[in-house]
Design goal:
heterodimer, A: 311 residues, mainly alpha, two-stranded antiparallel sheet, two-stranded antiparallel ribbon, 14 helices, B: 251 residues, 6-stranded mixed beta sheet
Amino acid sequence: MRRAVWLISGIVVVAAPWLVAAAVPRQQRYVLHVLIFTALFAALALSYDLVVGHVGSLSLAHPAFFGVGAYAAAILATEARWSFLADVVAAGLAAAVVAALVGVPLFRLAEHAFAVGTLGLALVASVVANNWVQVTRGPLCISGVPKPTLGPLAVTTLPAFYWLAVAALVAVGLLYKGLTTFRLGRAFHAVRDNEPLAAAAGIDPLKYRLVAFTIAAGLAGGVGALYVHYLSVMCPEEMTVALTVNLLVIVFLGGVGSLRGVLVGAVLFTALPEVLRLAPTWRLVIYGCLLLLVVIRSPGGIESLLRRASR
Amino acid sequence: MALLEVRGLVKRFLGVAAVDQVDLAVEPGELVSLIGPNGSGKTTLFNCVTGYLDADGGRVLFRGRDLTGTAPHRVARLGVARTFQQVSVFPRLSALENLLVFLQQHQEEHLLARLIRTPRLHRLEAQAVDRARRLLELVGLAEKSDDAAGSLSYGQRKLLAFAGALMSDPELLLLDEPAAAVNPTMINQLKDYILGLHLQGKTIVLVEHNMDVVMDISQRVVVLDHGQKIAEGPPEAIRRDARVVEAYFGR
């Protein structure tokens, strides 16, 4: 039963460009654009959930790592003409290095202080992006980031980029699964559930928190690289704290600490605001009410609804 | 050589000495109880030994090795297991996983090996699961193995925490009030487990308020009051010691 659901979803996801072309030929480009955003957001939300859901540290710094990756990729691609894949790897590494450096002092802060500290980092990163004009061009944005090429393959069409984004999402999903199950996942969850007891079991809480934080940041940086190669432009407003709000909505209303929950959350909360454009005046009001409804009816997110339904 | 040696240990909180020049030596295979009124420094002493608190003076030696400044997870990996006074489990992990956590850190540490899941890791995991199931059986939680630890009763969680401390087959076991708020039947069970471990040759230090437990199973009792050691000796002698009676009941 579960296998069948995953299989059917997989087929639908892969075949989406044709399905969209058949169903809404006039709006094909727009719908595909939304789907690409959904896949990228899902990958970003999964990386975010590694920290928030699995080691239980409420980081608000994710836009900073996304931004570091996006800017690194944009600069390397436009100034140094790096190839797409090298660009993605470099962006991920850049974000991971920043995370490892700031993570050491940040994790000395306890829970809420950690959240505020990471919020500070996100704000500083946004200010830097706006004002370090020599490097980021500030509000003028870095434009002209080339479309991705994979060897001889140029990813120029929307369906091609959609498949690339889905492939990235699958890669992130597999890594997410590998990190959050078996012994590694157990150690992360032990640190999340009871830090002193985890230490008594021989787990170094700081080390495991840092590992999750750094890997998550690296993945966010990689997604950032994909993002700029898709939009071909990177601006400071792509990495504001508003991005954190989106990620929090996806992760917490989808289902914190759950692959399925985060994926469903990403689909719903990226696609929903777009679908609601049909009612432009009331769009944000309806969106807000739906958010409230989920929070009130199912505080464990959509994942807990799905669990109850499958029982 | 003593397995655990505490020399002139001092720990102050805001200038008040919670542990004041305490000496303690525990020989291999011994079962020593640490008693004293509330606030006499028993748990603080445990926390200093296991690295949760930095002592302000004195030294802690485990197998002759200085533990001063060693982080809690390192002390644990050296073979010192401890339990906590408040019930301490990982509430969202299953009972079985709770036990598995306590063994895995002693077996490998390379994160990449964990991510790749080497065949060696799968073998170790299978052995760990075997051991965990036997321990769950021992404390009577076998049929709860897949339940979230947070859903167990208070007493069950306490037994689970106790089993967790045994998972890595530690050389030294520090038990902080294992019998507190546990029902009488379970207390007798617990007493049997502890005595059984002692007969297997484990070295155990027990902090306990339940005098029946302490007097029945300890070889030696150490009494703390206001952070100082006021008496030490076999249970019968401690029971009659005037200073101990005074510390507990007043003059």
